[in-house]
Design a protein that fits this description.
single chain, 86 residues, mainly alpha, 6 helices, globular
């Protein structure tokens, strides 16, 4: 595991409201989980811009960009899915 992965893992373990303000790091973390689930970066990028029934056919990108609450909502949705909670 390289240094950046170790730092991201430590950051992930201590995720809190303040860190939800950092949209770049939260998105990197979400993308890390999405890549593990979807297997290809192209599919990760598509996921962000596809309509999702979880958000009444809004895109994850539009929810994420709405602010810290939106970032939290997308983050927890992806976490739930990564644990099998489709």
């Amino acid at each position: 595991m390289d240094t950046s992965n170790v730092q991201l893992t430590r950051w992930r373990m201590n995720l809190n409201e303040e860190k939800m303000e950092n949209s770049v790091l939260v998105k990197l973390l979400i993308n890390d989980y999405l890549l593990a689930m979807l297997g290809k970066e192209e599919l990760v990028e598509e996921w962000w811009h596809r309509y999702n029934k979880n958000w009444n056919d809004k895109t994850p990108h539009s929810i994420y960009e709405s602010g810290p609450e939106g970032r939290k909502e997308v983050y927890y949705y992806v976490m739930k899915c990564s644990e099998g909670g489709w």
